[in-house]
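SAMPLE LOG
Freezer: B-3
Tube label: C17
Construct: single chain, 315 aa
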Amino acid sequence: MDDNSGSTKKNRVVVCIGDIHGYIIKLQNLWSNLETQIHPSDFQTALVIFLGDYCDRGPDTRKVIDFLISLPSKYPKQTHVFIAGNHDFAFAAFVGALPKPGDGSEFWETWKEYKESEEREGWYKGDGYEKMHLQGRRWAGKITVRFNTVKNTEYKGSIYDAAPTFESYGVPHGSADLVKAVPDAHKKFLVDLVWVHEEKNVCIETAQGIKHCKLIAVHAGLEKSKGIGEQLKLLKSRDTRIPKVEALSGRKTVWDIPEDLAKTPTIVVSGHHGKLHIEGLRLIIDEGGGLENNPVAAIVLPSMKLVRDTDNLVA
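STRUCTURE (predicted):
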């Protein structure tokens, strides 16, 4: 619905922040720039949605999570939503912070479908692996291939580049000691991560005026081939029987907005893809991709303004 009535009622500011990947300085600079760019009263009451992937690749996962869990007390009038990324899911799987499957099945049953990749990816076989979800084993494993040809970078320990996360907690990559080294408050943060967030009446500026939309935030996106109701039910239930959650880790299958959502204007906002892509109501905000020299970005609604950690802003 478009609104050209000239109403002076202010629309709530919504901030969607892309993948952070263990870079505390980038996160601090981005937050400071957001605080500078958004009117103080709007910033203090903003809905802030973090789109997932807080860990891995960068050196400061522990500090990043400390920063994130401090926000509700520092900004009590803001609303904070922390979406699970595929990296966070895997981190949680390793340290025992994933919800158990609701049907009583065991995590080892998630291995079967991907067993042929075990040797190449060097799945974790240390203490506790017998009861671990597939993604936890992949995350803490030691990949046999050194170079990631897709990203043009060397792997950092595992296929997830998890070594810096281990090191940020003071233990070597692949060590079972990480389970004890991660503070309870950080485990609770991982336990509480949501897989999807829905918000009604989010406004967005368009050439035709302000458009009132529904918003769905999910780390990678929604599948075109499945019904939206079915997907949202699965994501809200955090069904950990699934070896690989497509909405958290898919690529081409979750790039576009499903046709089911065409009836009601719906913003679908994600991170994950290592790209900044804005096409209509499909927003992909992951300019950093976890690479050291790339910025971490956020988008501010309704203005559609992009803010980066690298912006040189003067208060």
